[in-house]
């Protein structure tokens, strides 16, 4: 089969396992991936097959059904979640359908099903991993173990009970919490509604301190963004209006999982958090 060069770095990295494919026939057509399907942009190709592998026959149906999954993609619950979903909702326009392998489905499901449950949804029957081919067939497979070792394994955010937002505190009390924590991140949150009446969040992060191993500030910022998207109920509580809100999120990393244990409302009129972060540089924990 002929693969265009850009996608298909997947083949080089071991994503594509060769065997026989499934014939498309004359009942499908190539169409441009619409702008409303943001999760499937910049994935290595710009045209998709319609009907797709989810059985959607119109672009309106594809857009409507796929947008419900975009939030899961934003949580980055698995490194292949976007590839997995786009291979189903926007399959590449080749002369055969390329399904995701069962192993990829299982890997994505095992990482992302808990995120769906956090939002009150079970893993859907339509994505039952048994419907996908084994890795020996022509399909998109998970990255090889050798490739994984080349990448730094970062702590992951998980679904957790929302910490109470502290409104009244002293800088001494905050410093005591800092002493028992791995990180403190200042977060500015704002929200807006999309054309589909969903909530989207703008998240700006500034790392105040990190004490966990070799984590870098940008890695910690990314992990906090992931925590806020996975624990959307907590984020909703912190953004009761469309006015931007500022918080300090403090927590620990335990067994590779990020746990936010304290949330402080950072208000301009209150200098206690500013004082605590300034004194932290010279503070000696007992």
UniProtKB/TrEMBL annotation:
GO terms for molecular function: Wnt-protein binding. It is found in: Secreted. SMART domains: FRI (SM00063). Disulfide bonds join 40-86, 105-129. Its main location: secreted. Residues 25-142 form the FZ domain. One of its GO terms (biological process) is canonical Wnt signaling pathway. This is Secreted frizzled-related protein 2-like. It comes from Lepidothrix coronata (blue-crowned manakin).
């Amino acid at each position: 089969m002929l693969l265009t060069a850009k996608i298909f770095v997947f083949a080089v990295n071991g994503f594509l396992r060769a065997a026989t494919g499934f014939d498309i026939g004359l009942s499908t057509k190539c169409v441009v991936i619409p702008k409303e399907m943001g999760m499937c942009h910049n994935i290595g190709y710009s045209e998709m097959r319609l009907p797709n592998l989810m059985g959607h026959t119109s672009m309106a149906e594809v857009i409507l059904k796929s947008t419900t999954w975009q939030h899961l993609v934003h949580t980055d619950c698995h490194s292949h979640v976007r590839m997995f979903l786009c291979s189903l909702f926007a399959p590449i326009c080749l002369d055969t359908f390329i399904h995701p392998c069962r192993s990829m489905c299982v890997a994505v499901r095992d990482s992302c099903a808990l995120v769906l449950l956090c939002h009150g949804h079970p893993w859907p029957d339509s994505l039952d991993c048994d419907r996908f081919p084994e890795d020996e067939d022509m399909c998109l497979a998970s990255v090889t173990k050798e490739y994984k070792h080349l990448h730094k394994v970062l702590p992951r955010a998980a679904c957790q009970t929302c910490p109470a937002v502290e409104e009244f505190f002293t800088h001494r009390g905050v410093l005591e919490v800092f002493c028992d924590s791995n990180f403190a991140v200042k977060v500015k949150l704002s929200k807006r509604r999309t054309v589909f009446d969903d909530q989207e969040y703008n998240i700006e992060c500034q790392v105040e301190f990190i004490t966990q191993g070799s984590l870098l500030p940008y890695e910690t910022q990314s992990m906090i963004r992931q925590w806020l998207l996975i624990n959307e109920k907590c984020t909703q509580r912190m953004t009761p209006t469309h006015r931007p809100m500022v918080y300090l999120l403090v927590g620990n990393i335990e067994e590779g999982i990020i746990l936010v244990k304290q949330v402080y409302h950072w208000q301009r009129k209150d200098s206690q958090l500013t004082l605590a972060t300034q004194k932290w540089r010279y503070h000696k924990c007992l």
